[in-house]
Amino acid sequence: MSVIFKKHLEKFVSIDGVTYQEVFAFFEIILVKKKENLMEEGEFCNFHFFVEQGCIRKFFLKDTGVEQTTEFALEHWWMTDTFAFERQEQSTFYIQAVERSVVLRISHDNREALLKKFPFMEHYFRMVYQRAYAAAERRIRFLYEFSREELYLHFANNYPQFIQRIPQYLLASFLGFTPEYLSEIRNKLRS
Amino acid sequence: MSVIFKKHLEKFVSIDGVTYQEVFAFFEIILVKKKENLMEEGEFCNFHFFVEQGCIRKFFLKDTGVEQTTEFALEHWWMTDTFAFERQEQSTFYIQAVERSVVLRISHDNREALLKKFPFMEHYFRMVYQRAYAAAERRIRFLYEFSREELYLHFANNYPQFIQRIPQYLLASFLGFTPEYLSEIRNKLRS
């Protein structure tokens, strides 16, 4: 049983030990190695993932075959192909561990059953999606508002640990830069 | 009382007439003229808006003073500055009617009270945010995946009514084009 997830849930809902055990029975805990795939494009999108420890990323393959990272999830963030998960379709993304990670996963059927049995979990997931949507809303604004250099500066100032933890080539991909361009910005800021 | 909102709610939850009246008491119905502001940047972000009829948009002012549209809401979509609404802070966006619209609004306190009194509304708002987040997730992918011309084509193919309904200068702003560039693409596609 996971103490980390219980503490995280308690930020949003009141839950006693017995109820938590029943809630947790709907989840599986999995260990993933660095660069191990949790989900692949074209695969039936059956799971919603929660990062307990580590970091995972979502990417798709461009026409050129290059991996384009669109999202990272650090500790206590959820990740899946939300559209495909709801509709129970094939995933249009890959999800892969950036570092060795401990991940909880819940299947679509289990999540439905969990929400039916414990309606207070609707409140929890409402808050999860509300915050995820708020973050996406801000991110879309930044894409209009900032130049590429400003985008990097924004990330560096607001999420310094994130910048240090993510390998530079993935960070460059996420920011829409070439790795060379990211080095250039970094050198310019240092000098 | 609004029949439109009841029908919309029934897509997600079972609700009888008496309960609906109690739910609806938490909302206000407002009529807005074309170009009338529902929310202004710097103003306390107190409302979540639901479009019954019409179309509203969200924008911010760039350093140059130009309005940058980041989002549209047509019938049955919700809109606010999600981040500021949750935290009860000043809005960082304007929300304005694109055409004459009928809008429901619920204040932050009323939404909290509604969710407390009718926990089944947690399920409704979970679904609202889940779908909004899924749409944002796909939109962020498109921004990486498509050229500007492809982005326009994608919108024109998937949302033809949207393209016809939104004034061309707003559509250009939303797509990150100049109006001239949008005309150029349109002419090129016609020829």
UniProtKB/TrEMBL annotation, chains A, B:
Q: Which organism is it from?
A: Flavobacterium rakeshii
> Where does the Cyclic nucleotide-binding domain lie?
32-117
Cross-referenced InterPro entries, in alphabetical order? cNMP-bd_dom, cNMP-bd_dom_sf, RmlC-like_jellyroll
Q: Which Gene3D superfamilies match?
A: Jelly Rolls (2.60.120.10)
- List the top taxonomic levels of the source: Bacteria, Pseudomonadati, Bacteroidota, Flavobacteriia, Flavobacteriales
**One Pfam family name from the record?**
cNMP_binding
Q: What is this protein called?
A: Cyclic nucleotide-binding domain-containing protein
